[in-house]
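Exercise 7.
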Amino acid sequence: MLDKTFPSKQRLMDCLKINYGIETSTLTRLPLGADMDASVYKAQAYNHPPYFVKLKRGYPHDISAIIIELLRNAGIQQVIPIVKTLHGQTTQRLGDSTLMVSPFIKGQSGFSRDLTDDQWCALGKVVRQIHEINVPLWLQAKIRRESYAPKWRQAVRSLYPLIASQPSGDSVAVSFLTFIKKHAATIYRLVDCAEQLAQKVQNESSPFVLCHSDIHGGNVLIGEDTFYIVDWDDPILAPQERDLMFIGAGISNIWNKPYEEELFYKGYGKTEVNKTLLAYYRHERIIEDIAEYGQKLLLTTEGGQDRMKWYEQFIAQFDSQGVVEIAFKTHENLIL
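Solution. The predicted structure, written as tokens, is:
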């Protein structure tokens, strides 16, 4: 098993001083997000407002910063600007990770705080603006494009022999294996349905737009007067449903109320939602999580105390009114 760790706090503080001119008095790791390849911090600087610092393991390019700059130049203020290095760079390499710095915005994620009715409408409007933005050809070439590839379905299928095996490993790995054994039939159904849906959407002619690709409540930072869409690590050119699937999908058992969808689409404006694509993306998102959590918890020892948090995040998907139940209902509604 592999175990990869992030650079130490002292090394990170030294990097901030040398490359950003930021002298920090304290550096506090924040328990945010479910990205197992990222670590985020609040850097309290001397005589300056605090900064938000993100380390992304194995992040090969600065596409996130480019997208943020594109959106802000287009007048979309609900994205947080990047703080550049002393040499004008938007990111900074640090070992096997990439460092990105931005102003620290006080607020709560959508997992902890509800959007107001006005904010729901505003979120719909902003997402529509993102989907309508003109992405230059040179930038399109840098952004991944939707291909409905079987990568994550194959990754989950590779775990099938483990599901049939005797649980082993640390206590979290044993708990994870025991859980997926109990829910094996559900996992097989998710993969099979996603495969069928992928075959159907391959021939769809829906236009591709710029999508965030992970616009759930945890990636919406809510303040008193506004909100911000954060975590632009993995944008994609895809049908609008790639983002719209999150509205009503129930990730972390929120954003699953009909009136919230109504408010969102009031702001988003008139559009025809492809329900087959919606069902595909809701299944595929869960399958990706099964693969990633499975690989991290069964094939590595990394994470330390975070391993239990990852396990709890994983099993929550199978709760009543959770993402699995909603994905199945979305598919069933296609058949009715």
